[in-house]
Amino acid sequence: MAVESEAPLPGEDAARLAAWIATYAPLPGVPDELIGPDGPRAHWSRLLDTLAGLGRRGVENRFAAAARRIDDMGFTYRVHGEARERPWPLSRLPLLLTESEWQEIAAGVAQRAELLDGVLRDVYGEGRLVAEGALPPAVVAGSPEFIRPMCGVKAVGGRWLRFYAVDIGRGPDGKWWVLGDRAQAPSGAGYAVENRLVLARAFPSLFRDMKVRRLAGFFRDFRASLVAAATRSDPRICLMTPGPWSETYTEQVYLARYLGFMLVEGEDLVARDGKLHVRTVAGLKRADVVYRRVDADWLDPLEANAASHLGAPGFFEAIRQGSVALANMPGAGLVESRALMSFLPTLAQRLLGENLRLPNVATWWCGQEAERAQVLRDFDNRAIAGAFGDRAEGLDGARAAIGAELEPAQRARLIRAIETRGMDYVGQEVVQLSTTPAWRDGALTPRPFTLRIFAAATRDGWTIMPGGFCRVSDRRDARAISMGAGAQSADVWVIGETERESAATLLPANNDTPVVRVPGNLPSRAADNLFWMGRYLERAEATLRVVRCLCNRMTETQGAALQGRQPVERCERLLLAWGAAPPEGTEAGAVIALNAASNPDLYGSARAIATQAKRAGYIVRERLSQDMWQLLMRLEARLEQASGAAPLEPEILEMSERALYTLAALSGLMDENFNRATGWSFIDLGKRVERAINTCRFVRQFADDDPTLETLDALLELVDTQISYRARYLAGPALAPVLDMALLDPFNPRSVAFQVRRIDEHLAVLPTLLDDGMMEPQRRLAVSLRADLEAADARRVDGRRVLLIEQRLMALANAISERYFSHASDPAPADRRSKLA
């Protein structure tokens, strides 16, 4: 690796490393990943020696580059209860594990996954564990994650668990201990890949030289296992998300894109005749496998939570019919309960004939009299937590409480609750976690951490991800680490002993994958959002063009004889009608332009519309390239910069033009880089519909009501045809030629006729519901409007005719919504501009 600034002299390696760790002081009596009994561990020394060679300035530069990459790639997360997303908090140093230590962890995780899968098969099947007294009935029936409709159901392929995660930590004895199981809908695997992408880019040579094992092989095996679980040879695999408000939505989007799965929400799914289907623009299409990130209680409002809008009615019946495979089955969350942890050592002996390779944190379930008495006797030295979740009476909203740290009143209340209803509580040993190096304020400092390991069920058994999702606390006390409590996430490097893993990719091992050119079926919800993203982007452009036109003409002399007919006044009226200017007050000129460009509180401002475009794009983010997403964020940022600025025409004009350049770049990416599949058709349909409607409104505003040369010239500017007009007509703007170029010219990419032709071409190739050769309503409207525009004469076009064309375009937009976006009760977002007279 090339050394940047502050490079040391040859022969100073040991002294350089010693200087770096001179102030690093592990916590007393707590194991540390960097410093062992004999000093710095060898695998850490290699990493830190390389960093020390860069010098502090060089290291900070690399870390700053990593932070920029996180922003550029849009890696974010959301804390529960917050509307705004936060940038992903990546720790600058990875957690290092040797190959030998990793093998021990992987063996323990595989054993535990097999054990829990066996427990679930029995609990929802024969029920021998409860019947024979190995498991108390209350541990099963008392859990809110016990899904009664799944009793007696046989999971497709026999697996209740297909994707499992376990949180582990290194205890004071130096051994790894299980802190918790994750089987409901484990999160973090996508973030682990994102962490790897960022850190491997920041230190490519170091990553390669240390033979870090790669993650792609794990995901390749997981994907292959889901394909094998389906009952059809060419299955449709869906990743089911709770939606954009999920705390880990960006991770779900990334996984869907990375694995090639269809991202769906509950409203995308329909259960018919015992099978699960996806609503697509081509009708209902079979869903064979669902990798769910929605909790089981929300999957089916008919048989689970009736208030759920995240699932699909009839989902459970499709599962019972064996027509859909799941990762994981509803009810798998049962094994996450802390109450079950106290029974796992004996269950391992009973079901596997083995001791647990990875032991639990010592746990006592207070639903048993002897265990409850033991917890109460040693109350001050126990961590008290809910037996079946993170909330329990007496904990005052905390996930756990240590007896010795409670106030007297809370202590008495909690003891009374345990005595009254002990089955709701567990007592656990208080474990002091080991520490790992973290970069804080330009220096290394020890911080506690937990490690989440992921396992996937395959034909050959359990495959373990060679790495994981590490959370590093920002505090020395890390008994409850979560991403919402000041923690950071660290990449996990398993240091391989050979080069065997260096070539691992997500590509299949063989070369017999058939070549396919037929585009996949697009979910109706995705089509809806792509359509409206196209409309919003075109709407923002139209608003900015009016703002630019207004700024360009503010210096024109306003003649009293032309009151109400000047371009400036017409621009202001248009922005007011579009909701881009405050309706009250006497603001004019620069104030209106500034509001129209950047006021987020005005629904018609360019900034508010850009935010809507970003929200629509966020929902279908798995279908957008990274470049497109960055430009969407940049568009919003450019318009945010204008907020609070003094209303000076040059600054507003420059800001509007920069935003228009960003929109032009977005349009170029969509035209040149967006695969010509169904998704592109809908984003272009939205763009064409909105452009045609806005052009009609420009014409009615600037070419009607006794237009002047100045208003006709403004119209040519707004539809971006000034150069073409001047090349075609030597005289100045005249009404009929201007109307022809704006409305009817089939060679002008800004004319209404051009947009309608493109709309008709898109509708002609989109799927039809019935193969009867008959035109569907939306196509019939497009063909009729196209024919009328092609036959029209600009000399006979007046304001009434233009209004009729606009109304027909809006009817066409509604017909497209009703045909393709039928998943929603309201076919499309309300178009508040329809009020324009």
TrEMBL record:
<dbReference type="InterPro" id="IPR051680">
    <property type="entry name" value="ATP-dep_Glu-Cys_Ligase-2"/>
</dbReference>
<dbReference type="Pfam" id="PF14403">
    <property type="entry name" value="CP_ATPgrasp_2"/>
</dbReference>
<protein>
    <recommendedName>
        <fullName>DUF403 domain-containing protein</fullName>
    </recommendedName>
</protein>
<feature type="domain" description="DUF403">
    <location>
        <begin position="522"/>
        <end position="821"/>
    </location>
</feature>
<dbReference type="InterPro" id="IPR025841">
    <property type="entry name" value="CP_ATPgrasp_2"/>
</dbReference>
<dbReference type="InterPro" id="IPR007296">
    <property type="entry name" value="DUF403"/>
</dbReference>
<dbReference type="Pfam" id="PF04168">
    <property type="entry name" value="Alpha-E"/>
</dbReference>
<feature type="domain" description="Circularly permuted ATP-grasp type 2">
    <location>
        <begin position="94"/>
        <end position="473"/>
    </location>
</feature>
